[in-house]
Design a protein that fits this description.
This protein is an alpha/beta fold and 274 residues long. The protein has eight helices and 15 strands. The protein has two domains: 137 residues, Rossmann fold (3-Layer(aba) Sandwich); 95 residues, LytTr DNA-binding domain (OB fold (Dihydrolipoamide Acetyltransferase, E2P), Beta Barrel), CATH 2.40.50. A five-stranded parallel sheet has the order 2-1-3-4-5, with helices on both faces. The protein has a five-stranded antiparallel sheet with strand order 10-9-8-12-11. The radius of gyration is 21 Å and the shape is elongated. The termini are far apart. About 8% of the residues have low confidence.
């Protein structure tokens, strides 16, 4: 039967490329587009697409969070579209979930489309759901489902540990590259964008500071101001300032203001480093 396909990607050019490649495939009834994770969740619920091409890293709700919102069992056949490095892609390979590594060739797209269509035809919903759970556990930035031991029992109902990201994907002028958070010194808010400052460069991603903060390891990063997050590894000392505020001195001589609102959590974070 003809398929309804949903393309989810925050880059218009990336969506256009997938749409163009889909015109070469037979049995396509309709092609829909979503520019972010929130729109993807809404459109999957409303249109019930047969197949989804899902970008992994997007501002706001990412691809893994889309799956969590819908539920792995309820997800249509899914092909991940990603710029993850080869190490992270092992999770996709191990769990037999198809993916397209940006930039991908036309032939690779055709192969992924054919595989996804056959998976749908075989009604392999349960197997696909298990595979998606596996990818979420290995690569996802939220919480992983509870892993069971050899005896088939869990850990008595304990809450799974939070998973924190250690890198972000930066998209600039048609190219995508990975920035390791260990190299980032200061993270600065600019409305719906965030600037990542390392020792030499500034990288810009489309995401709010609060959303990014929720995915950062609190033992490594601390918020010092409504617009600033700092890597604890680069903090040298705190100095008193006017009105109850403080000045944070970094190891390169940079001085940043610590507002009273975040003074207590900054102190607790630094104590945790000692």
């Amino acid at each position: 039967m003809p398929l309804t396909v949903l393309i989810v990607d925050d880059e218009p050019l990336a969506r256009a490329r997938v749409r163009t490649l889909l015109t070469r495939e037979a049995d396509i009834r309709e092609v829909l587009e979503a520019e972010d994770g929130d729109a993807a969740v809404r459109m999957i619920g409303e249109h019930k697409p047969d197949l989804v091409f899902l970008d992994v890293q997007m501002p706001g709700r990412d691809g893994f969070q889309v799956i969590e919102a819908i539920g792995a069992e309820q997800m249509p056949a899914t092909v991940f579209v990603t710029a993850f490095d080869q190490h992270a892609l092992r999770a996709f390979d191990v769990h037999a979930v198809d993916y397209l590594l940006k930039p991908f060739e036309d032939a690779r797209f055709a192969q992924a489309f054919a595989h996804a269509r056959s998976q749908r035809g075989l009604k392999a919903v349960a197997r696909a759901a298990d595979a998606l759970r596996g990818v979420l556990a290995d690569v996802g930035a939220a919480t992983a489902p509870e892993a069971k031991g050899a005896n088939g029992s869990g850990n008595g109902g304990a809450t799974p540990a939070a998973r924190y990201i250690d890198r972000v994907l930066v998209k600039h002028e048609g190219r995508s590259y990975v920035v390791r958070l260990a190299d980032v010194r200061v993270i600065e808010s600019d409305g719906n964008y965030v600037h990542l400052h390392d020792a030499k460069n500034k990288h810009v991603i489309r995401e709010t500071l609060s959303n990014l903060e929720s995915r950062l390891d609190p033992t490594k990063f601390v918020r010092i101001h409504r617009r600033l997050i700092v890597n604890l590894e680069v903090v040298k000392e705190l100095q008193p300032w006017f009105g109850g505020d403080q000045v944070m001195l970094l190891n390169d001589g940079t001085k940043l203001r610590v507002s009273r609102t975040f003074r207590e959590q900054v102190g607790a974070a630094l104590e945790g480093q000692t």
